[in-house]
Amino acid sequence: MHRLEDDAKIQRINALFKMDITSKCRKREYVELRQATVAALREDYGWVWKRIGAAIGWRDHSTCIHAYNGHRARVEMSHLRMYDEYFDKFSKIKHVLTEDVTEVYDPYKLRGAVFMW
Asked: pTM for the complete prediction?
């Protein structure tokens, strides 16, 4: 179920925000970024919970549902100015995910190495 193009999307989000959303860190910045990523993958791509969980660090589907509910709660309270920064992150994630991936991430590729068989 885990796909290389999923890894590429998650790595582009990590690079944009200079954070690893697959980590188990529970700091607010990481949690909000994971919640926004889950929401974008679910709403824009229609990914199933299990696939989203695998992409963001092998989390359970119930964890993804909880993250999505956290995003929905922020959307319902979007009139509060304290969530402006969160929605900026969310729009950046949606933009990064819709960009065309020119080079697919390959975890087995060594930097600068050339193999001749």
From this structure: 0.76
Asked if residue 42 belongs to a domain, the reply is yes
**Secondary structure, 3-state, 52-113:** HHHHCCCCCHHHHHHHHHHHHHHHHCCCCHHHHHHHHHHHHHHHHHHCCCCCCCCCCCCCCC
CATH number reported for the structural domain that contains residue 49 in this entry: 1.10.1750.10
DSSP assignment letter at 110: P
Any residues with CB less than 8 A from the CB of 94 and at least 6 apart, and which? Answer: 40, 44
Q: Which helix (H) or strand (E) holds 33?
A: helix 28-45
Which amino acid would we find at residue 88?
D
Q: How many angstroms separate the CA atoms of 62 and 41, rounded? A: 15
pLDDT at 112: 46
